[in-house]
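Sequence, please.
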């Protein structure tokens, strides 16, 4: 299923204090447990790892991560590791999303595509930062028939062994792609661009990223 939206006016440098709401008495309400955990995520996971871009911190402060995990995991939504989802996949640790947004540098001129693992968290983070956004599943991305739509920015919510040609066919020449990459069993954040010869990827930081089996390399015969 494809979800499309057009961004309205949005400041990429909005205040990080969006979660504060005036109480009826005129005083600021006490922060909830989730707000406190979200602030701790930003200060102790993102900032300490070098993710300081104002637009990234603003989005990750504004989006309630606990709304994208199963009910039983809401109290641990902001831990620095992946969380199992109801569909059998996993929501990656917060640092992955902070770094993928920072490296992507999305803009309102971008037509964006997210290959979503099923949580909906990454599309929600990205939505106001781009001109348009489509969301597809890993199964759709790996399908033999590609959509005629073309994108300037592609984000993959998970780690892949290889990117299918059908995903490359969805990208404009020069389009950017951000994804997790599996190399010798190790997962890393990777950034790349589409060229006439295909997609070239450069591995950046090593980190734990849930693997998407739909993008595993086909195993050949061996003797």
């Amino acid at each position: 299923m494809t979800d499309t939206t057009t961004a309205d006016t949005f400041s990429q440098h909005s205040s990080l204090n969006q979660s504060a709401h005036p109480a009826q008495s005129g005083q600021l309400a006490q922060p909830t447990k989730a707000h406190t955990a979200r602030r701790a995520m930003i200060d102790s996971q993102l900032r300490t790892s070098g993710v300081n871009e104002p637009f990234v911190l603003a989005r990750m402060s504004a989006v309630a991560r606990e709304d994208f995990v199963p009910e039983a995991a809401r109290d641990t939504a902001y831990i620095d590791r992946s969380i199992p989802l109801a569909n059998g996949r996993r929501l990656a640790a917060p640092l992955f999303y902070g770094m993928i947004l920072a490296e992507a540098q999305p803009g309102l001129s971008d037509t964006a595509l997210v290959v979503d693992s099923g949580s909906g968290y990454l599309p929600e983070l990205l939505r106001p930062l781009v001109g348009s956004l489509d969301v597809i599943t890993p199964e759709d991305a790996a399908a033999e028939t590609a959509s005629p739509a073309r994108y300037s920015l592609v984000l993959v919510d998970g780690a892949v062994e290889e990117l299918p040609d059908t995903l490359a066919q969805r990208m404009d020449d020069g389009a950017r792609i951000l994804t997790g990459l599996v190399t010798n069993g190790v997962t890393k954040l990777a950034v790349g661009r589409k060229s006439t010869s295909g997609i070239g990827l450069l591995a950046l930081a090593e980190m734990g990223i849930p693997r998407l089996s739909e993008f595993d390399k086909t195993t050949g015969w061996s003797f």
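The first strand starts at residue 5 and ends at 6.
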